[in-house]
Structures are given as structure tokens and as C-alpha cells.
Amino acid sequence: MVQAANLEGIATQNKFEKLKAEKDGLKVKDELERFAEIGWQAMDKTDLEHRLKWLGIFYRPVTPGKFMMRLRLPNGIIDSTQLRVLGEIAQRYGEDGSGDITTRQNLQLRGIRLEDVPDIFSRLEAAGMTSIQSGMDNVRNITGSPMAGLDEYELIDTRELVQQVQDMITNQGEGNPEFTNLPRKFNIAIEGGRDNSVHAEINDIAFIPAYKNGELGFNVVVGGFFSAKRCEAAMELDAWVPPNSEVVDLCRAILIVYRDHGLRANRQKSRLMWLIDEWGIKKFRTEVEKELGHPLETAAEKDEIDWEKRDHLGLYPQKQAGLNYIGLNIPVGRLQAEDIFDLARIAEVYGTSEIRLTVEQNLIIPNIQSENLEALQAEPLLSKFTPTPGPLTRSVVSCTGAQFCNFALIETKSRALAVVKELEQELELSKSVRLHWTGCPNSCGQPQVADIGLMGTKVRKNGKTIEGVDLYMGGKVGKEAQLGTCVQKGIACEELLPVLRQILIDNFGATPKAV
Ligand code: SRM
Ligand code: SF4
Q1: Nearest-angstrom CA–CA distance, 120 and 445
Q2: How many angstroms does the Cα of residue 398 sit away from the middle of ligand 2?
Q3: Which of 69, 229, 419, 451 is the most exposed place for a label (fewest CB within 10 A)?
Q4: Which pLDDT score, from 0 to 100, does residue 515 have?
Q5: What pLDDT sits at residue 9?
Q6: What is the pLDDT of residues 440-472, one digit of tens each?
Q7: Domain range for residue 324?
Q8: Does residue 103 lie within any of the structural domains?
Q9: pLDDT given for residue 2 in this prediction
């Protein structure tokens, strides 16, 4: 039976705890028709600005009346029918309607009008999609290996597990009051390959393939997160689980422990790691075992992450003979309605209707017969979304930034693209360099996992406040992943280009192109 969190006695000092205690965010689900009737201007301010996020509907103060809708796409998988539904939604809004692939292997749509939301939700449901519990103090989209079921070197196919964890958390997409009042947001990732394609280390819970006594399962790490105040890589829980329902049970137990004991007084100190700090990992583990009702197995001695991270762009054979996948670069993840339709068509004509999203804001079309590869490569869309982009374009990642996000200190997506274009014109690079842009210290664009990370800030120049960045370096992904750190603060964006050029020459072997 679904039970709401029992939060009696838990501190309610901050405004978010108060608003959750007054009315659970999920409750607005039953009020949508009324909201659609009265219009967003007449809505209660807290329902509008906060509780709608429990349904995945985000009021955007930057574009009032044009909402963002964040879906849940477990393991980043979507099919052509679902894409068409999203394309139709985006298309309704003309120039305002667009989509973004997110850093959690997910999609967000823009331009949504509140009066359309009841109809949009019916369409999503009919197409087997949901946006429930995708914002605020809920578990975000659950990421999994983008190559699940395709990769000859795969260890564990993560698709079913990711779906089961999502179903447990969201009550099959209906909404689950058991997990709608966590102390803060929560991230879960399940890796099934050798290259840590999900950035396991930056999740509150991550499952990493590991053999124990010859049996393949997962080691578990916990507490990874980024925030404006603090960024931490996940630490070992010293637990191993087989790749079955025990993964779901463990997620559930950890979520309940976090829900009931996580710190709530100060929102800057509410993510799971703060509870682990307070208790120590041993006590945390013991409490999780109590909630599980049985002891956890200790971790396997080593995990199986021993590859460099792949970006999956380009054309590759699958483990299934005669089938291939193509990874396409979607510059900073931005899609227009017509792109969404075209991708749906291409996935149907050349593949099996399926598309996979990656945490690098790109996508993969799997299951292409070898004899169809030539025709696919001649598709006009592949000159916009190329499988062979330049060495910087191929790995540039950017958060939403000032165009739509009110936290942003700078514009990110358009600047990120302009900068890599310029640098690629000037420099020869023998390998890709990963540039991540994020518009503010919340770090949605994960500058700490990048070779070069750029975090928006404000700088003073000639008595004026202008857009700038703090520079991060040293992020390492894949095996032995490591977070990058801030190496230089407050570079004015207008002075950034020569700084980046020099870093690429000094640290990444770039050479100036002959004029
Ligand atoms: Fe994020 C808040 C966008 C991934 C850390 N994030 C926001 C909001 C909702 C703020 C807002 O209301 O405007 C942004 C919505 C802007 C918009 O209109 O799109 C936003 N976050 C994003 C996305 C879309 C960035 C992107 O362009 O890809 C990503 C959506 C993922 C998804 O599909 O669910 C996104 N956010 C992340 C990540 C990266 C990750 O998960 O790997 C992080 C850092 C990792 C983490 O959370 O530990 C991240 N977002 C935050 C934070 C800081 C959290 C904290 O503990 O302090 C906030 C602010 C908050 O929660 O108070 C935030
Ligand atoms: Fe918005 Fe800041 Fe997140 Fe970028 S990093 S999407 S600016 S909250």
C-alpha cells in the first residue's frame, strides 16, 4: 500500500519544508483542470512556482505563461510514436516550442501553455510517457547505460532495472506520495558497461558492475552530488547486490532512510551526503539494512569500470550480427519540433523506431541494418546532427542558461556553440576536449566532470557588471573518474576566447591552423 512520508516532528524551518507540509506537491495533479480554467495568473503563487514541478511542469519567470515540461525517460529510451507526440506538443507553440536533451538523458519541452496541460498529460499517458515527480524534492530521471542491450562488451543490461526503479518511485507513473517529500532532489544511476557512461560518481545512488564470487552484480556508491555550496563524488556503501529486484529494494530502503532521517532544516545541507556526514557511512549502512530487513552483502573487491568513457558518436556495429547504431551530435541538446519529427521518421525507416539519449545531450539510433547505412548517411538531417562533428563540438555540453532559467548568471547554450565554432576554426586538435558550460553554481551542466568546465558568474569591468565564468579543470570521466576543480575565477566572457585557446594549446596539444 502506498504510504505518505511521516514527517511529524521533522524541522520545518525553511520555506520549502513549510510548503510541502502545507500541501504535498502531488496534490496539484487533481487540480490541473481547475488551473487550466482559471489561468496561471489566477493561481496560488506556491502552486504555480513550486508544486507544479511535482508534475514536471515548470513555471519560467523568464518567459511567464510559457512553461517548461520535464519528462522522465528511464534509461534515456524513447520511440518514434512517443517522439511524434512530443513533436506535436512542441509544434503547437510555434517559435516558442522546442525541446532540450538534458544532462540526465532526458527531454524537456518549452513553450507549454497551462491550459493545454490536461490534454498534454492524456497524450503522454496514451503514449506510455510521464513527467511525474521530475522536479523539486523528488527522484530525477534515472539514468542507465545508453548502449544497454546493444553493446558486445556490456556486462549488465540496465533497461529493465531502471524501469523497475522508476515504477517503484512513481507508482507506475501515477505518482507516489511515499516519495514526494524527500528532503531534497535525488539522483539514481545504473551502469551496465565498462566505461561509466552515466557518471556514476555524481549520483546520490549509483550501481556499478562488479563480480562477487564469480557472480555479476553491482557495487553501490552513495552520496554523490553537486550544489552551489559543495560538490562531492559518491562514496562506497560497501554493498554488493545482484542485478535483480534487490536493486529496487535497496533504492527503496535508501530513499526511506533519507526521507525519514535526511536533514531538512537548511536546504543547502539537505542532500544525502550531508546525512552520511552526520551519521558516518557505517551507521548509514546499518540503518539501510534495518529498513531492508536483512544484512547487505559487502562490496566486491573491485568494480569492472576499466574503460575510458565513450561518447558513442559515429557508426558502430552492435552485438547483434548485421545491426549497427549511429550516434548523432545534437549541438547543446537543442531540438526544434521539425527535428523531433524527422528523428522519429529516421528511427522508423532505418532502425526499429527507437532512440537513445545520452548524458552528453546527444542521441543514438540503434538497430540499423548494414545495408541501410549508406542511405541513412545521405539523410539531410545528418548534416545538422552529424555523427562526425569537430573535436570540440562533439563534446560540448551546456545547461539551459539565461534564455529560460532564472538562476542563470550568464547565457550558456548559444555562447557555448559560438565559442567552439571559433576555436575549431583557429585550432587543430587531434582529439576531442570536453567543454561543459553551466550558467550558475548549481552545476546542471556538470563543469566538474569536464576537461574544461565553465561556470557562469558576474564580473566587474570598467565599473560595470558583466557576464563571466569561473574556470574548472581536471575532471576525469570513465575509469578512475575524478571531479575537476576551480582553477581560475571571474574571467569576463568577452575575454574568454584567448584564455581557452591558450589552454587548448598548452594542455591539450592543440596547434594553430595555418592562416
Ligand atoms: Fe539542474 C535546478 C536544469 C541537471 C543541479 N536545474 C534546476 C532548474 C530546475 C532550476 C529552475 O527551476 O529553473 C533548472 C531548469 C532550467 C530549465 O528551464 O531548463 C535545471 N538541471 C537542469 C537541466 C535541464 C540542465 C540541462 O540543460 O541539461 C538538467 C535536467 C536533468 C533532468 O532531466 O532531470 C539538470 N541539475 C542537473 C544536474 C546534473 C546531473 O544530474 O547529472 C545537477 C548536478 C547534480 C546534482 O544534482 O547533484 C543539477 N539543478 C541542480 C541544482 C543544485 C542542487 C543542489 O543540491 O543544490 C538546482 C537548484 C536546486 O535544486 O535548488 C537545479
Ligand atoms: Fe539554471 Fe544554473 Fe542549472 Fe544552468 S546551472 S540550468 S543556470 S540552475
Answers
A1: 28
A2: 9
A3: 229
A4: 72
A5: 47
A6: 999 999 999 999 999 999 999 999 999 999 999
A7: 314-384
A8: no
A9: 43
Residue in the block written with cell 556503501: 237
List, for the chain, all residue ranges whose pLDDT scores fall below the cut of 70: 1-13
Buried b (16+ CB within 10 A) or exposed e, 353-382: bbbbbbbbbbbbbbbbeeeeeeebeeeeeb
Atom of ligand 1 nearest to the CA of 361: 28
C-beta of residue 66 within 8 angstroms of C-beta of residue 112:
yes
Report the CATH number that the domain containing residue 325 is assigned in CATH.
Answer: 3.30.70.3340
| Residue 102 CA neighbour count, 13 Å, CB half | 24
The dihedrals phi and psi of 323, each to the nearest 5 degrees, come to -110, 150
pLDDT given for residue 11 in this prediction: 46
Determine whether the shortest distance from the Cβ of 57 to ligand 2 is under 6 A.
Answer: no
Give yes or no: residues 289 and 320 share one domain.
no
Atom of ligand 1 nearest to the CA of 101: 28
Alpha carbons 489 and 61: distance in angstroms, whole number: 28
pLDDT tens, 326-363? 999 999 999 999 999 999 999 999 999 999 999 999 99
Choose one of 384, 407, 422: the last residue of a domain.
384
- Residue 191: per-residue pLDDT: 98
By the 10 Å C-beta count (0-12 exposed, 13-18 middle, 19+ buried), 393 is classed as buried
Cα 442 to ligand 1 centre (Å): 7
C-alpha to C-alpha distance for 428 and 473, rounded to whole angstroms:
20
Rounded to the nearest 5°, which phi and psi values hold at 511?
-130, 145
- Order of all β-strands in the sheet with 323-328: 77-79, 354-357, 363-369, 323-328, 314-317
CA distance 185 to 133: 10
> What sign does the CA torsion over 10, 16, 22, 28 have?
negative
How far, in Å, from the CA of 356 to the mean position of ligand 1?
A: 20
